[in-house]
Design goal:
alpha/beta, Immunoglobulin-like, 2 domains, seven-stranded parallel sheet, six-stranded antiparallel sheet, 14 helices, 25 strands, Maltodextrin glucosidase, hydrolase, GH, glycosidase
Length: 577
């Protein structure tokens, strides 16, 4: 087998500085070949030298990304990011290696837990919003009881009283589950329960406990060695924000230039929603106030103890109401974050193709919707994220997973925020119509696939949605409250999730390993995870399949086995040396 991915044997150092010499190696029985790389618009070639375990070449990190592939002379093939090819591939199929700054070490393969604060736990009922306390969209807000179901037509008017104190009180539970980092949807003051339309980016919403509750949460997390990533809504703000109110009231004010107003008096807004005016980063004042200046929220909350940002609709941020200069702005946001905190993690909500953005040395990764969440759930449930009927074959699933993985820069492959559920899409158990076995398989793929798995709150205990299966709906129905009565939990799912998290954290090939094809036939997906000589075979079977194994340890049972084995659901097997 010919193999090259992000591990110490293949790339040394793993995160080179620009201009530094880097050693590139390929694991292979081949003894002769060439490193083929792009430099200055031309293709250059350098002989590979035979070393123990493969071939290597040394090259200066002259660009980021550095683009290269390997030519193996006797075999007459190129080794590319997508596998072997008899012909010279497009640059798109070259390996892409980034220079520093790269993904912080703590985030590689880290286990995340996403929380929608209003719905997780009410730690202090005294700070709850009350029905009718203010208007949102011209309608009075609604305070609901914790166990009341979410109503589809009441949307962001519904407030349940979850807060940061509730999260702090739940850290024993989260740590026992195996969680290493939290990602919180927005926590700043807002008239809505989702808070993506904040009115102040320098305070924590008092109904979440304010700054004191934030400080206590950060301290408690860091004492446990856990991290906190906040939701950075820097594409748009709420229309109640003072900057936008000044812009509306005085077209000659400096603030007016921070937004994109049209001749008819309208203005650019997120998906045209007028409560969400887009920030215009063509204006230097916008850049200073939001991402660059000493008081910019991007910097401020990292100084206050946050460990990183998830950038909301990262692909939309730009100038003039568009995404113009998007890559430059993302690069600046990443750089400024690292200036404030050397180990800050900055990943984006990139809902579609991530390739252009992540290869441009911008962010540490993205939410892995297109390359994991969507194809996996479509394969398992026969509907896409919009509710359309689809039919994804197992070969088509693998082709999509592999295509997206191969396109990623090497350092980012193990740090993609990999998910099956979030606050924006229907809950996986609901999409699977309550099928616990298929839910276990979805979770199994989440923790067996490369990346940093992000578990949406409640999925581990079987939290479902209140709407009937035939009434397709994501937001707001996927945002139900966490039931703290353990009698309402699915103990089988919880135990399964804990086991998967333990394996993710304790088996190096599952946490940091590369990806290689193994076996695909209809109803059976098989792939390999490899790291530093360790090899794990992963199977996902929709129905019983026989697979032939070399001597292995079954990671789910601890037993050793070999030969023909019946697999249904998830199979995890570590090859015995």
């Amino acid at each position: 087998m010919h193999y090259h991915d992000w591990e110490a044997f293949c790339v040394e150092p793993l995160t080179p500085e620009l201009g530094q010499e880097v050693v590139l190696r390929v694991r292979t029985p081949a003894r002769k070949g060439l490193l083929v790389f792009e430099q200055g618009g031309e293709l250059e070639r350098k002989p590979l030298q035979a070393v123990s375990g493969g071939l290597e070449a040394r090259i200066a990190m002259h660009a980021s990304p550095l683009r290269y592939c390997f030519y193996l002379e006797a075999e007459r093939v190129y080794l590319t990011s997508a596998g072997v090819s008899p012909t010279l591939p497009r640059y798109d199929r070259f390996f892409h290696l980034l220079a520093q700054p790269s993904v912080p070490e703590w985030a590689v393969g880290a286990v995340f837990y996403q929380i929608f604060p209003d719905r997780f736990r009410n730690g202090n009922p005294h700070n709850d919003p009350q029905s009718g306390q203010w208007l949102y969209g011209g309608k009075p807000i609604i305070k609901k009881g914790w166990d009341e179901p979410v109503a589809p037509r009441e949307g962001a008017l519904q407030h349940y009283g979850g807060d940061l104190e509730g999260i702090t009180q739940s850290l024993d539970y989260l740590q026992a589950l195996g969680i290493e980092a939290l990602y919180l949807t927005p926590i700043f003051p807002s008239p809505s329960s989702h808070r993506y339309d904040a009115s102040d980016y320098h305070r924590v919403d008092p109904h979440l406990g304010g700054e004191a509750a934030f400080d206590r949460l950060v301290q408690a997390l860091h004492q446990r060695g856990m991290r906190l990533v906040l939701d950075g809504v820097f594409n748009h703000i709420g229309n109640t924000h003072p900057d936008f109110q000044k812009a509306l009231s005085d077209p000659t004010s400096p603030e007016a230039g921070m937004f994109t107003f049209h001749a008819d008096g309208s203005y650019a807004a997120f998906y045209g929603v007028k409560t969400l005016p887009k920030l215009d980063y063509a204006n230097p004042l916008t850049v200073e106030r939001w991402v660059d200046g000493p008081k910019a929220p991007l910097r401020y909350w990292l100084r206050r103890g946050a460990d990183g940002w998830r950038l909301d609709v990262a692909h939309q941020i730009g100038e003039g109401g568009t995404n113009r200069k998007n890559l430059e702005l993302l690069r600046q946001m990443h750089r400024n974050s690292r200036e404030e905190a050397l180990e800050a993690l900055v990943f984006g909500e990139l809902s579609f193709d991530t390739t252009e953005t992540l290869r441009a040395h911008t962010l540490d990764g993205s939410m892995h919707y297109a390359g994991f969440a969507h194809p996996v759930m479509e394969w398992l449930c026969g509907q896409n994220v919009l509710g359309w009927k689809v039919q994804v074959s197992t070969p088509a699933l693998w082709e999509t997973l592999w295509d997206h993985y191969a396109a990623l820069p090497l350092q980012i492959r193990q740090a993609m925020y990999t998910l099956i559920g979030s606050h924006d899409i229907p809950r996986p158990l609901w999409r699977l119509r309550g099928d616990t076995e298929r839910m276990k398989l979805a979770l199994g793929l989440l923790f067996a696939f490369p990346g940093s798995p992000g578990l949406y709150y409640g999925d581990e205990i079987g939290l479902n949605q209140a709407n009937p299966y035939d009434l397709f709906n994501g937001d707001p129905m996927c945002r139900g409250t966490f039931p703290w009565d353990e009698a309402r939990w699915n103990p089988e799912l919880l135990s399964w999730t804990k086991q998967l998290i333990h394996l993710k954290k304790s088996v190096p090939a599952l946490r940091r390993g590369g990806l290689q094809p193994l076996e695909v036939r209809e109803g059976l997906l098989g792939f390999k995870r490899l790291y530093a000589g360790e090899e794990v075979w992963v199977y996902a079977a929709l129905e019983p399949h026989l697979v032939r194994l070399p001597p292995v340890q079954d990671l789910l049972t601890g037993e050793e086995t070999s030969g023909w084995v019946r697999v249904q659901g998830l199979g995890l097997y570590r090859l015995r040396s």
